[in-house]
Design brief:
With 124 residues, the protein is mainly β. Helix content is 0%, strand content 44%. The protein is built from no helices and ten strands. The strands form two sheets. Strands 1, 3, 4, 7 and 10 form a five-stranded mixed sheet that branches. Strand 8 and strand 9 form a beta hairpin. The protein is globular and about 35 Å long. It starts with 8 loop residues before the first strand and ends with a strand.
Amino acid sequence: MNHTDTRIVSSLLRDGPAPSVGPATTRLLYGRPPSLPPGPGRVAGTVQKTGSPNSPVARRVRLTLNDALDNAAPAALETWSDPITGEYEFIGLALGVAFAVCSFDHTGEHNAVIAAPIYAEPMP
């Protein structure tokens, strides 16, 4: 996976039980689909537990427009990072649009980690 134009979302998250939702599942969380502009891009990254060395973890990852706080009803997509690689991916996104990626610790031990602005890269 090429991470040249994406950011790695690393967080101080402890290992916990794997979530019941599969890592390949992406769903519209809220909002209207037209709120997230479609296109030929993708946003991908890795969720890791910071340590020596960093280790990949399964965590809930949400994608919104970077200006979501300014919108009355922002749209969001949600998926889970892969428990073995920590990788996540959102596809079919517009290029040149600023997104925000937020990783949540479902164990509740740590705060969410947000990376923004993130720009979609062309899909391979």
